[in-house]
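Comment on this:
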Amino acid sequence: MKRKINTQMTILTIVSVVFTLVLATLAYYELFKREIMEDLRSYAYVIMRSGAVDNVEQMKEYVLAESDVRITLIAEDGSVKYDNEAETSAMDNHESRPEIIAARNVGEGVAIRHSKTIGQNLFYYAVEMENGNILRVGKERGSIWAIYVGVLPWIVSIGCLLIAVGSVLSHYLTQQLLEPIERMANDMDHLDGLNVYKEMVPFAIKIRKQHEDIIKNAKMRQDFTANVSHELKTPLAAISGYSELIENGMATATDTQHFATEIHKNSQRLLTLINDIIRLSELDVTEQSLTMQEVDLYEIAETCVSMLQMQCEKHNITMSLSGMNCFIYANREMMEELVYNLCDNAIRYNYQGGHVSVDVSVEQEQVILTVGDTGIGIPKEDQERIFERFYRVDKSRSKSTGGTGLGLAIVKHIVEQHGAKLMLSSELGLGTQIRVYFGDYIEKNG
C-alpha cells in the first residue's frame, strides 16, 4: 500500500510539473507576443511623429539605424510606396492583408504570419495615417517551438529538480500519512493512547470487533467439534459394547433383551443427536431469506401440546395450553420447531407429577409465547449459558432423558433469525419460564 501511494504521488508530481512548465511556456509566449506588438506600435507612432513618412527619401535615412525592423508604406489603393527590405516594384498589392484590412476598418491592425522558409514568425503592426496611407512595421521573431527548444535545457533541468524534490516529499508525506494507520493496525486494543486519525477510529473499532468475533466463533466451532465428538462417542461406545457381548455369546437371554433395549435407546439418542447437529449446522449457514407467511402461533402450540401428550404421560407430567389465536409473520417450520423444543425441554427437566404450561397471548401489541414448568430450575450462574451448545445444568439427568444439549441452542438461532426477543426467568428447584416476544411481526390478532 505504501509503495502504491508513493508511486501515485510521484506520478502526480511528474504530471503536475510537466503541465505547469507547458502552461508557463505558453503564458511566456503570450507575454512575448504582446511585448513585441507594443514595441512595434510604439515604433510606428515614433516614425509618424517624426514626419519621415511624408518623404520617402527622408524615411530611408530614418530607418537605417533600425535594420531589424521592416517598415512598409502602403498607399490608399494597396500598392506599396516604400519598403526598406524589398523593391516596391516587385511587391504585390497589400490591400487584402489582414493587418491592412483591420487598419482600414478600425484605424490599426496586427497580424502574425509564420514563414516556413526562414522558420520564423513575422509580427506586423499597421496604422492608418491622416492622408489615407498606411504605415506598417514588422519584426521577425522565433516561433513558440523555437523559443521552447532554446530554453529546453533549462526546462528539463528545472523539471528534473522539481520531480526529485517532489519524489522525496511524496515519500515523506506517504510515511507521515500511513504512520498513524500502521500504529493503529499494530495495536488496535489501545486506540485511546495512540495518535491516530479520528475518522479511522470507527473502522478500527469495527475491525477489532470483527476480529474478536472471528476468534470467538473459531473457539466456539472448536468447542462444538470437541463436544460433538464426545457426545457421539458415548452412545456409540455403549452400542458397540452391548453388541460385542451379544456377538461373543456372553449374554444370557435376559441380558440380551436388556442389551437390545439399551442398544435401541442409545441408537435413538444417537439419531436425535445427529438430527440436532445437522439442524444446527443448517441454521448456522442459512444466508438466504426465510420463507415467511402468516401463521397462527396458538394453532402451532396446540398441535405441539397434543403431540407431546404421550411423552407427558410417560413422565407423569401434565401439560396445559392457554391464550388465544395470535397471527404472526414467520417461517412455519421454524415456529413448530421452536415450540416443540421449548416444550420438550420443559418436560425433560421436570419432576414426576410436575406441570408444563404453554400460553400464547398479546401484551401491548406484542405476540408472546410463554412456556413454563415446575421442574428443577436453573442456577443463577448458569442462566446466561443455558442457550450455548451442549451446555447442560444437570448432565446426568439430560443423558438419562435422552437430551442432546442442543435444543435451546436451536431455539436461540430461530429467535434471532426472526428478530424476536427471548427472556428467561428461573429459580432452582421451583421451575423455569421462557418467553419469546414477536412484537415486530404482528399483522393481526385472532
